[in-house]
């Protein structure tokens, strides 16, 4: 190996990573000699070994693909273009805002500022390029100077301040000047005047932080060009609907858009408790907030003026063509869970469209992918009422800048017209909907054989979403739009190497794995992701990418050098390590969610047959009909929330389950089989189900030579016994394991409490029980507040709890059905059948 090189700083390490991609380890150098890693690995020495990485950079084009040194990747010469809008819901937008040549424009590093980004050249310019570039950026326009008067003259506000209505001050008639002062007070809670100096200074500071925090901030040039063209051609306001991974997203995403020539959007911040100083700073940087009082019931007089002012403000904001950035997800959730705050802001946007104030709005879903989230340590443990201050944010930035977080990638999905979406959504709305309690309880309790040919009515968590009065049809439209945008934003998000590696360690190799085998599994998962038309956020040789991912996960894994010339990689069994690995691994759930539903359904069918077989080895001979797989899949799909499944509004539950089975056949997990007799070894299907299959009624290919034909309901399958398929089956089942286990434990916990219970107290007690069980068996992936809240939500939809509001607090009463422990046990067994 020669003399040991001097240790380098983090800055020097980053510079080497960003250098020419030819600087990689020679192929003939032994892996263990390069690493020299033991259980007590020195972080500084680890930095020496994790050099020469080839990740996405400004020179990467779509033609490069993913270079893997073990096997040729699927479609190895081109990356999939992700984020196409829905052809059913937005047919006019499908072709209008997409051009195939945009896919070949490659990537760029958004925070790499050089002399070329300025209008000047020279030695001094190269040292001041960040400052000069920020000074040249075109900041977003201010709101109209007479905004206060414009809001006062709107019909919505006039209905409140007129003598006929009591407004916010029942029984008093205020003068116009007094009403103007009240409107000004509310307007100050929503926004603040933009400070150009403060904007440029904060963006310059943030740009410095980002260069230390991340190796690269990757964006696709074609996606940026697509959004620019959509804005120029349509000349309509844009609303960016983004996934939410960190509290820092709202700070640096406007900076990203501004640096790439897109108008800086106003950021709709969540309803969290900010310190007054921090809130004032965010408002001066373009943030907007919901004012106090908007969370009251719509039919109450309290807060009526606040609701009228904020609704009129959004209309004025969109009329001035200023973009708006709304985060869809609950931050730190780790799951695809819609935020009540996002529904509040989207209801205001929809109201502006429905009133005719805005003819059309361009919707742009946004996906964010971190290799390591800046504040991931709070995942699943965040207290919703905690105060977020300026110094907390600064400390998070400093901590992330010192540690280094790898790369982050931003993906912009294809823009679509809200007008196009609304017209098609109203046309496609289904009237056959039932509550989950009506759909599943007969099946769970065994009272009768239910026919699940209805769509489930989603019961969203109540919060400050009733900002404006929406009809039932508009509420359904709001639900559909949020799920549609969240699905688009999540599907276009790239999968990072750290996320793949974490998923393998959590769901496949909990006890450890050899590095050589881990590389093979890494290639396998990468190919499976590309097969599903999803993109990955890395490129380069497998070994280099893996070393980079292991370095970023150094706090969660242990590395042991073996005499065999290989390295043992084992995840640590600590709470922090399991939480972090689980958080990273959830990024793969949207990619495999349909196959995971199908695999858990197959597992449930096999569990039913196990008592009737002589040994578990005979499960490989069990024959399953397509009809019974469908039936079991429908039960699971109805049980889980639609936002968790990312089931688009235009997809019926039957089409979703049909796709799940088709994908299991395509990946080889299910193998078609013929049975010589009419008697099946496993035949528990409901016979009416195939009459309701969506694909049978909408098959436009009359001459199709599909294997299913008109006797699709009689198609039979066996579970493949190949080792690769068995590994895939276990991997898919384990992806849904955390939520299903949490739900099962929540049902079992019912026997330990006396009801009624305040919902907040019950959630905290359940969380503490999950933590206690996790310390016993190491299942810390199940012990987080987001999964706890989702489990309680499912229980309420199933009718386990009845909600009663007392003194503005939700009280949970155990329903008469589930007072009996026998019914509790039936529900627990129903959920347990899907757990592998």
Automatic annotation (TrEMBL):
Q: Please provide, alphabetically and separated by semicolons, the GO molecular function terms listed in this UniProt record.
A: glycerol-3-phosphate O-acyltransferase activity
Keywords assigned by UniProt, alphabetized = Acyltransferase, Transferase
Q: Which terms in the GO cellular component ontology are assigned?
A: mitochondrial membrane
> A single GO BP annotation from the record?
fatty acid metabolic process
Q: Where is the Phospholipid/glycerol acyltransferase domain?
A: 238-371
Pfam families, A to Z: Acyltransferase, GPAT_C
Basic and acidic residues bias (residue ranges): 1-17
Which intervals of the chain are annotated as region Disordered?
1-21
Q: Fetch the SMART domains from UniProt.
A: PlsC
What name has this protein been given in UniProt?
Glycerol-3-phosphate acyltransferase 2, mitochondrial
Source species of the chain: Python bivittatus (Burmese python)
